[in-house]
Amino acid sequence: MKKKILIHNGSIRHETEWLTPGTLIIQDGRIQSIRPGNALPEEISQAEVVLDARGMAVMPGLVNGHTHFSQTFMRGLAGGRPLLQWLKELIWPLQAAMSVSEMYLASLLGLAENLRCGVTEVIDHHKVTRTRDFTRMVKQAAGSVGLRCTIAWAWSNQGAKAEADQDILSELGEWFGQASEGAKINFASGPLTPWRCSAELLQKTHALARERDTFTHIHVSETVEEVQMTVDETGMRPVEWLDRIGVLDERTQIVHAVWVDDREIELLAQRQATVVHCPVSNAVLGSGIAPVGKMLASGVSMRLGTDGPASNDTQDCFENMKMALCLGRAGHHNADYISNEQALEMALASRTLKVGAPAEMILVNLNNLRAAPVHDISAALTLCSHGDDVDTVIVDGEILMRAGKILTVDVENLLKECERAIRSLRKRAGVD
Ligand SMILES: [Zn+2]
Q1: How far does the centroid of ligand 1 lie from the alpha carbon of residue 308, in Å?
Q2: pLDDT tens figures, 152-199
Q3: Burial of 400 by CB count in 10 Å (0-12 exposed, 13-18 middle, 19+ buried)?
Q4: CA distances from 248 to 16, 285, 303 (A)
């Protein structure tokens, strides 16, 4: 039986309005009521947990639309390398040397960091799939941390490390079978890039994803060089090619979309595909600045992702929000290119707090030296806040973090174990 929780005295985001003060009640894991004004004495006395949100914003949890947990062991190593060199010299050798227990620790660290920063839902584009045990480790870690997590199981059937079509289809089918309605852990198809996947297998895996009520999650047009590779091979730009082969629709998540032209933006909007914008990663690897304002204005469904910590090098979604806003404005010489509210909406994947829905929310402290005095809550969240300002995280009516303390992971011990593991991994991978 889940506890009855009352949250009061804070600013509650209801649709896109802020109720200050507002009162929110959670019963049996769901939002029972949201209303403006102070809590009544009988409401306070009936609640089992009372959270005083004075000076805080109460809002849906952030969605981290794209990361790679394996890379929490690879932070700070990019060293000025562009995407393809960075992959070949660092990421692929480290991933190839990673053990199952290291995958578990890296996932736990990645999940704990997301939780600490106010993320309640994360998509892990899971690349280390040599045996099923690596994927089981991610699932196990996600289960113990308590976040909502989709594992987009990565595959490629072309180029170096290509896997056999039949193996990909059968393993993907097995993982899809392990998701269940209402479950916090789900699976999606994660083809790596158009230039590493055949049209035929993209079509088959996308059809399988549709049949199992899930989706396709793929890196597209991150760099100019990559776009050229698809143009050379197919005569079409990547988004155009995905559309031509029938893999661009409302069940497609396009990660990056830095180098998309006007025709591709039109296609993304028409087909109702989702774009996951990763501004910090695109800046760290010098990939470019995505035309976010243009995509938003064209009606493309947008959300934000940190990308893996090897190209960010954190998973702080507040920093990501600010970078989306700053890079967009700077790159297009326009202070009005993206509004604070648009950046916040992307970070929330347009979710709202609704009566009757599962209680999934965060409390963010704005009463601090960086954010006070608060004139506009959306501006304070996008321009002044960091992940460390998140005070409380609730998923499905369960408190996973309170007063900045993660309740589901022993963080001190985890950090020690990760330090030990990374020294051994670097040696084995030959990147010392
Ligand atoms: Zn990525």
Answers
A1: 6
A2: 999 999 988 899 999 999 999 999 998 765 679 999 999 999 999 999
A3: buried
A4: 30, 26, 17
pLDDT in tens, 82-123: 888 988 888 889 999 999 999 999 999 999 999 999 999 999
State in Å: Cα 138 to ligand 1 middle: 16
* Three-class SS of 182-233: CCCEEEEEEECCHHHCCHHHHHHHHHHHHHCCCCEEEEECCCHHHHHHHHHH
Interval between CA 155 and ligand 1 midpoint (Å): 13
CA of 43 to the centre of ligand 1 (A): 46
Separation between Cα atoms, residue 123 and residue 125, nearest integer Å: 6
Distance 95 CA to ligand 1 centre (A): 14
